[in-house]
């Protein structure tokens, strides 16, 4: 419940960002396609010129980000409005509980497939799409040897399947007792993996298009510098003979070539620079959309799809908060469920205002890194350990047989009793070891940084690092607390039973021998 609550706070903030971009997608031209004029109206804003229009719109026009976490900044009213709108939409979908959620899911679960199909058809026709697909399906063995990659993959699959959040358990409580849970588990896992693969194809095709465009622009910029410096006729230097010209000029005039500060142009380098997470949606993808004909249409479709995906994820997060509180009778009977849901949404909105400040993006990364990683691994490990060791595999198999009509086969037993807990433990220990060896840092957007527009990597302040540890520990604290409570309660009951019901006297004792004498 704690993880679902904390994840829901920052997850709905991402939906607020999506709404902000969605509202701005109806402008022609798109507001992130060009730099705005400065105050004198004679030039462009320096921060935008040094970076890119896409980065400027994201960091300054959307986030109005501060240069570090120590400077919180003020609330951004446009983000507050979008955040209130996002929580209002979530509340409307939850107003009647599972009845309205079930109807909303028909839209939020199917519409993204339609948009992905449209993007797939368009993306495969773009120049450079095949390079992006080649990059997607060509394994890099050096990267696969990095433990951090596997940790990120484990975190991603937990988010993708909503494991250890509580939402799946909450939704499953509405199923009939004889529901075929084995079939559901296999179907959900297969459909999730197939959807991830299907979604990756248009995304990497578009990333390949963006990398190809950047690579061509990089070559054209270098060619322009060479032709102007050495008075070479136009169109004599092309991308095909660029290396030959550069080698000859560098051999004859090394100092003049060095002073040109030519960029290193490589398609693979631009593909490697593709961002992930929020950067993929709000920086890389929006920059690619600019180059596509009819960019407004593609931007609107893309952000509608993102909002649908995020909204369906919010259903599980909020249900993981509401259902435990209702089932544990922690809500007064006289309080209507609709009002209780409104109170929870209002509390979440007020707490999430921290993400609408100038430092909000930094705090969102903190929550995403420390709430959505270690706590999920710990909760999942103790869930499977409690079922197998304490509840017992035999009792669990009997429950599955009662529901499905057959007991789990050897594959499920091997996974539950060996593979799954071992892998969870290995990933958890590896994560802790890796994080313990490096100092936590965060990338800051600082226009005064010497290497701007590159991000300035800064260490977390000590007080922020303390909050990071707190966010990792608080969601799992109920596990030892509840375990100790039940242990003490069982011991107390056992002592009380002994006092109330002393052992019966030995019928063969003649009371003639006293062992203490």
Question: Notable features of this structure?
Answer:
517 residues, mainly alpha, 21 helices, 2 strands, 2% strand
Write up this protein.
Helices cover 69% and strands 2% of the residues. The chain is mainly α and 517 residues long. A two-stranded antiparallel ribbon has the order 1-2. α4 (77-94) runs antiparallel to α16, α5 (98-123) packs parallel to α10 (181-230) and α5 packs antiparallel against α15 (295-327). It is elongated.
Topology:
Layout: H1 2-24, H2 46-50, H3 53-62, H4 77-94, H5 98-123, H6 129-137, H7 141-144, H8 147-161, H9 167-172, H10 181-230, H11 242-252, H12 254-259, H13 267-272, H14 278-290, H15 295-327, H16 337-351, H17 360-370, H18 374-404, H19 410-437, E1 441-444, E2 456-459, H20 462-473, H21 478-500
Antiparallel strand pairs: 1-2
Helix pairs in contact: 1-4, 1-15, 4-16, 5-10, 5-15, 6-10, 8-19, 10-14, 18-19
Structural class: mainly alpha
Low-confidence stretches: none
Overall 3D shape: elongated
Q: How many distinct helices?
A: 21
Summarize the main sheet.
Answer: 2 strands, antiparallel
Number of strands: 2
The radius of gyration over CA amounts to 29 Å
Following the backbone from N to C, one meets helices and strands in this order, namely HHHHHHHHHHHHHHHHHHHEEHH
Order of strands, widest sheet: 1-2
The residue-averaged pLDDT reads 84
Query: Helicity, in percent?
Result: 55-70%
Give the strand content.
Answer: under 5%
């Amino acid at each position: 419940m704690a993880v679902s609550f904390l994840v829901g706070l920052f997850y709905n903030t991402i939906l607020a960002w999506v709404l902000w971009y969605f509202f701005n997608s109806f402008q022609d031209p798109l507001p992130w396609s060009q730099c705005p004029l400065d105050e004198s109206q004679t030039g462009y804003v320096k921060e935008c010129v040094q970076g890119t229009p896409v980065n400027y719109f994201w960091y300054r026009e959307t986030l109005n980000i501060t240069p570090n976490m120590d400077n919180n900044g003020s609330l951004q009213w446009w983000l507050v409005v979008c955040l209130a709108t996002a929580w209002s939409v979530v509340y409307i979908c939850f107003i009647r509980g599972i009845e309205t959620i079930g109807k909303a899911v028909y839209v939020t679960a199917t519409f993204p497939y339609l948009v992905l199909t449209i993007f797939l058809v368009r993306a495969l026709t773009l120049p450079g799409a095949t390079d992006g697909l080649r990059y997607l399906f060509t394994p890099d063995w050096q990267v696969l040897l990095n433990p951090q990659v596997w940790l990120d993959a484990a975190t991603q699959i937990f988010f993708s399947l909503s494991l250890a959040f509580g939402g799946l358990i909450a939704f499953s409580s509405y199923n009939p007792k004889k529901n075929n849970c084995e079939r559901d588990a296999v179907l959900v896992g297969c459909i999730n993996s197939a959807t991830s693969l299907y979604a990756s194809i248009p995304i990497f095709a578009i990333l390949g298009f963006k990398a190809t465009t950047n690579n061509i622009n990089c070559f054209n910029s270098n060619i322009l510098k060479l032709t102007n410096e050495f008075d070479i006729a136009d169109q004599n230097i092309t991308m095909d003979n660029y290396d030959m010209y550069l080698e000859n000029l560098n051999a004859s005039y090394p100092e003049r070539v060095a002073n040109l500060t030519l960029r290193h142009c490589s398609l693979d380098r631009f593909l490697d620079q593709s961002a992930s997470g929020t950067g993929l949606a709000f920086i890389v993808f929006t920059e690619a959309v600019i180059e596509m004909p009819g960019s407004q249409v593609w931007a609107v479709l893309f952000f509608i799809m993102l909002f649908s995906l995020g909204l369906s994820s919010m259903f599980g997060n909020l249900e993981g908060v509401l259902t435990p509180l209702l089932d544990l009778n922690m809500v007064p009977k006289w309080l209507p469920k609709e009002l209780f849901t409104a109170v929870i949404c209002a509390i979440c909105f007020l707490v999430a205002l921290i993400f609408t400040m100038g430092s909000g993006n930094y705090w969102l990364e903190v929550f995403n890194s420390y709430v959505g990683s270690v706590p999920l691994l710990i909760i999942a490990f103790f869930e499977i350990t409690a079922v197998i060791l304490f509840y017992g595999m035999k009792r669990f198999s009997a429950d599955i047989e009662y529901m499905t009509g057959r007991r789990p086969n050897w594959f499920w037993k091997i996974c539950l009793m060996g593979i799954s807990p071992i892998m969870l433990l290995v990933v958890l220990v590896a994560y802790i070891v890796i994080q313990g060896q490096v100092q936590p840092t965060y990338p800051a957007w600082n226009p005064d940084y010497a290497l701007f527009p590159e991000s300035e990597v800064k260490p977390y302040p000590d007080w922020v690092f303390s909050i990071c540890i707190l966010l990792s520990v608080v969601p799992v604290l109920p596990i030892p607390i509840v375990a100790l409570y039940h242990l003490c309660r069982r011991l107390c009951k056992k002592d009380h039973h002994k006092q109330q019901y002393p052992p019966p006297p030995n019928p063969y004792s003649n009371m003639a021998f006293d062992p203490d004498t």
